[in-house]
Amino acid sequence: MGEKLLEIKDYSVRFTTDKVISRAVSHVNLSVDKGEVLGLVGETGAGKTTTALSVMGLLPKYAVETEGKIIFDGQELTGMKERQYRNIRGKRISMIFQDPMTSLNPVFRVGDQIADVIKIHNPKISQTEVNKRVDDIMRMVGIAKERKSEYPHQFSGGMKQRVMIAIAIAGNPDLLIADEPTTALDVTIQAQVIKMMRSLQKELGSSVILITHDLGIVANFCDKVAIMYAGEIVESGTLEDIFDKSREHHPYTEGLFASLPNITERTERLTPIKGLTPHPSELPAGCKFHPRCPKCSEICSQGDTPPQKQKETHMVQCHQIHEEEM
Amino acid sequence: MANTGKDGRKRMKKRGQMAEAWARMKTQPIAVVSLAVVAVLVLVAIFADLIVPYSKAITQVASDKLLPPGTAGHILGTDGFGRDMFARIIHGTRTALEIGLISAGASIVISTFLACLCATVGGWVDNLIMRFIDVVSCIPSLVMALAICAALGNGIPQLVFALFFTGLPMHTKMVRSVALGVAKMEYVESAVALGAKPGYIMMRHMIPNLASVIIINGTAQVSMNIMMGATLGFVGLGVKAPTPEWGTMLADGLSYMLRNQYMVLVPGLVLALAALFINSLGDSLRDALDPQLKGRA
Amino acid sequence: MAKYIIKRILMVPVLLLLIAMFVFFLLNLSEADPVLMMMPAEYSQEDYDEMAERFGLDKPKPVQFVNWVKSAVTGEFGTSYKSKAAVSDEVLYRIPVSLKLAGVTTLLMILIGVPMGVMCAVKQYSVYDNIVNIAAKFMGSIPGFWLGLMLILVFSVNLHWLPSFGMKSWKSWILPVFTFLLPYLANYLRQVRSAMLDCIRQDYVRTSRSKGQKESVVIFRDALKNALLPIITLTGGTFASMIGGAVMIEQVFAFPGIGYKVLEGINNRDMPVILACTIILALFTIGAQLIIDILYAVVDPRIRSSFAGKKKVKKEISTAGGTN
């Protein structure tokens, strides 16, 4: 593909609450090319949202330490001045948040909430022009423009998420981060929203980071996939790399697939991954997944993070897999 | 049988919550200091007679009028009647805590009962209680307390009743709103569906769940009532004449205010500090019992 | 909404009647004989009967109450036992004084408390936040009347800067307003802080930041407009408790307001005066509550639409949409 748009290099985040250190994200490497869709997959608490907020520069300022670099279109975002960052947020990178019910401001009209983005980044624009653009954007996300003077509480969940998407695309950003955009929605609405996002992505040509735990959505939408577990990327590659069952995969990825219902193959029961995601303040030594791993051997519980095995675009971080077998 | 098992577990969880709150409180220096000061106040109130005999607080010695603080035998001086200020402050602590604790305690017990009644029985009972409270809460609480004291006359029991009654409406409203939430919980609904009586639901389900709101509001009410008791004493509607009480001491000092400023300074300062530390204890309790309220960035 | 407000206003006389009834009942628990209190040291039974008849105190209690209500409807509010004059002449002119005192204080409280509270929330755990918080905790625990005495000692007695009592010039307002303000302001700004803290942590604030919005707009427009709801409630509640608190302030500074009069009435067991003053104070409270409810609907669209029927919502939207 083309040029690199976003590069996350060896990036880590640590939170300190009540003297307890939580390693939310550790040594993450990710890149997104222009026009590309990256799926970031993992369970709740794997550090996906923290990574996304880091790109937006919206991590809480209090009790947070970060390491590593985030580079966006040649500019280093990490350590950037707030003034400069504001010109990027909303205009060049924007984000769709997980819960549309709480992410919209209840006391402002939805039209005004969309118009904000346009006004912030085009201070000299006329009100008529703003109105016109808001109408256009609302049409794109499939909301009747008459509803722009309504308030969020008058919208259903799916419609609210459309408003969120409208806010995110209003600045015509180069990179769109969608943080579990459908988790809070009904299943029937989920499909609609994903379909709409896909056509919008084609129309606008933006890059997208899609955060989800739904591999079905990933298969439908993404070009590249990164699997996150306990703050680390345990496997990454193109869609084909990850979804090709003939190849070797990280045991966690295999677990994720095994816990999916499959219509084509009739299986008696789903195989869940045993155990729970560890809390980021109590991560085990060695491979973070080893206490839950069916292939775990002695080496897995020792030392630091396992080495990353690379074959072309495909990367797996596991002791049990050898590069020659990939 | 299943029901008792569930309750057993619930009570254990409750004890766990209190222990957890205590563990959180121990780490906060302000909380520990407040608790210590309040403990000292309580001890002073209990052992007032051991510190200085009551007679010293009420005996008027004509020759010892208006002695300044630091005089031998009268560490805080004497008032216009020649009574020892220190003894009056110490025994005033007893009066203040007596008034504050009993009136606030009574308010809480009765208002919790009323609130639970509203929440579990509902219907016309709830309506009647709430309409009465609507009417009563339109009267400013100080005016109400003044009116009750005026009607009933001076004395500690009358004062306690006035403060108890004045605190009732606000508490009932607050506890009721929490109790209504609890009444909608599934375990309460299932108990109702199993035919549990309102009294059982109140004791088993409501009270444990209301514990934290009761403790928090109760502490605030104690300091509020001490303050209001002193206010009433200050306008001459509180305790009967010789009883040592901070507000009355302030009022006594008023006529000597220009020359003997310590007479209004000392009791007021003691009153303010007592209120401060009780309030501070209340805040710490709230933070410890409801850590979400404190919240972190 | 209008319908709701009218309904509320129509309820006011009923509420006032019930309040009067309650206070009347309460004061009659007293065993003191009001007629006796009005009599000179030496009097005959005839004098006593005459006095009782003059004030209608010879009638049964319920009749006394009905008579007072009748008198209240005409605007006279009965005759004061103490001054023997119509209560209205003694009480009504005090209303503006009390309203002005509470109004000015509330206004100052909002103007100082909201920005300070918001700043504390924004800079949570900073040195500023900690200092303001501790100072507020301290101030909030000081009894207002004692603070008044201390300020009189310092500024009137020792420094001779300000008058200590009465209402002669604007200078007379400084100490009472300041004394009144400080404890309420302290509690108010702490509550504003916690209301604001709740709002700052909401997801929509993050959304606003994600748009590239300036931090000042994020805080003072997007977060504060939401925090206004609890702040309105707080302000109303504080105003209501100020109405009661004013009694002590007016007493300490000998300020000719309703609070001063109600205390005088209570000390004299002057039933008609107490009733009239209580009714007026209750009216203040009810009025404040009504204003809060209206403001609430102005700020929160959710409440507005819960009042309006579905058709009305549509209408409002189409007209509002036109102006947009």
Automatic annotation (TrEMBL), chain A:
This is Peptide/nickel transport system ATP-binding protein. It is found in: Cell membrane. It is a peripheral membrane protein. It comes from Faecalicatena orotica. InterPro entries: AAA+_ATPase, ABC_Ni/Peptide_Import, ABC_transporter-like_ATP-bd, ABC_transporter-like_CS, Oligopep_ABC_C, P-loop_NTPase. One of its GO terms (cellular component) is plasma membrane. Belongs to the ABC transporter superfamily. The keyword Cell division does not apply. Transmembrane segments: none annotated. GO terms for molecular function: ATP binding; ATP hydrolysis activity. Residues 8-255 form the ABC transporter domain. One of its GO terms (biological process) is peptide transport. The keyword Cell membrane applies.
Automatic annotation (TrEMBL), chain B:
It is found in: Cell membrane. It holds the Pfam family OppC_N. It is a multi-pass membrane protein. One of its GO terms (biological process) is transmembrane transport. Coiled coil: none annotated. GO terms for cellular component: plasma membrane. The chain crosses the membrane at residues 101-125, 210-239, 259-278. Keywords: Cell membrane, Membrane, Transmembrane, Transmembrane helix, Transport. Residues 93-282 form the ABC transmembrane type-1 domain. Belongs to the binding-protein-dependent transport system permease family. This is Peptide/nickel transport system permease protein.
Automatic annotation (TrEMBL), chain C:
It is a multi-pass membrane protein. SUPFAM superfamilies: MetI-like (SSF161098). The chain crosses the membrane at residues 101-122, 134-161, 173-189, 228-253, 273-299. Keywords: Cell membrane, Membrane, Transmembrane, Transmembrane helix, Transport. GO terms for biological process: transmembrane transport. It is found in: Cell membrane. Residues 95-292 form the ABC transmembrane type-1 domain. GO terms for cellular component: plasma membrane. Pfam families: BPD_transp_1, BPD_transp_1_N. InterPro entries: BPD_transp_1_N, MetI-like, MetI-like_sf. PROSITE patterns: ABC_TM1 (PS50928). Belongs to the binding-protein-dependent transport system permease family. This is Peptide/nickel transport system permease protein. The lineage of its organism: Bacteria, Bacillati, Bacillota, Clostridia, Lachnospirales.
